[in-house]
Amino acid sequence: MAKTNAAFMSGVPELLVLRLLSREEMYGYQIVRGIRQATGESIILAEGVIYPTLHGLEKKGYLSARSRTVEGRSRVYYHITAKGKKRFAAISKQWNKITASVNACLEFAYV
Amino acid sequence: MAKTNAAFMSGVPELLVLRLLSREEMYGYQIVRGIRQATGESIILAEGVIYPTLHGLEKKGYLSARSRTVEGRSRVYYHITAKGKKRFAAISKQWNKITASVNACLEFAYV
DNA sequence: GGTTGACACCTATAACTACTAGGTATAATT
DNA sequence: AATTATACCTAGTAGTTATAGGTGTCAACC
Question: Is the pLDDT of residue A110 over 50?
Answer without folding.
Answer: no
